[in-house]
Give the backbone structure.
Amino acid sequence: RQIRIGLLHNPAAQGLMNLAGLLFATCPDPRVRSPREALLQANRLARETEFRDPWALFTLSAALAENGEYPAAQDAAHRARAIAERQGIPDLVRRLGVALPLYESGQPLRMAPADWGEGASPE
């Protein structure tokens, strides 16, 4: 609820978009997950960052997977990994190493907010 309120007051806040996309796509609690909202926020963020921010692409991959779009989720994750490797972001490369096999087997990613860690929210 607080993220939704934050987005109402700060609709262009990229950090909030990313947190919302992750929360609504990956939360283990099905009452919190919202595939439509996850994809809306993740797509907005990816477009605003011109599909160049690896964390935004990671969130997009999770939102796509939550919506059952596994080939597109894999594409976004591969792109995120390539950028993260070039930029030297080992934490994100590791996270994508967990996510990709899930997407390849037709499963969404589940992460508790405590697992998101620093860096999962673009500045």
